[in-house]
Amino acid sequence: xxxxxxxxxxxxxxxxxxxxxxxxxxxxxxxxxxxxxxxxxxxxxxxxxxxxxxxxxxxxxxxxxxxxxxxxxxxxxxxxxxxxxxxxxxxxxxxxxxxxxxxxxxxxxxxxx
Length: 113
What we know:
It contains one helix and nine strands; from the N terminus they run ββββββββαβ. By secondary structure, the protein is mainly beta. The protein is globular. 23% of the residues are buried.
C-alpha cells in the first residue's frame, strides 16, 4: 500500500487501489489485501444474526469470511465484498461506516440492500 490511504482504522485500511483487512487469518491474525480491480461489488447490509452481526471471526455459512472484530455487534453496517470469479466473499465492518460507504459509492462499486 502506498501513501494513498483514503480511510484507516483498527479494522481496515482503504487506499485508492485496495482494501487491507487487518486480523484476517486465523489464528495468525495476519492481514489480507484485495485490489479494487478484483472486486465485483460491495453490498451494505443491516447487521442481523443472518448478516454476521454476532460473527466475531470466521464464517457461519462457509462462503463469507469475516476478519476479527470483537465489537462487530455494535456496528451499524456490515459490508460484503463479492470478488470477481471467486466463490468466497469477505464480510467486514469499519469504525466509521459512513465514510467507508461514501468511498465505495465514489468508486462505483456500492450496492445497498
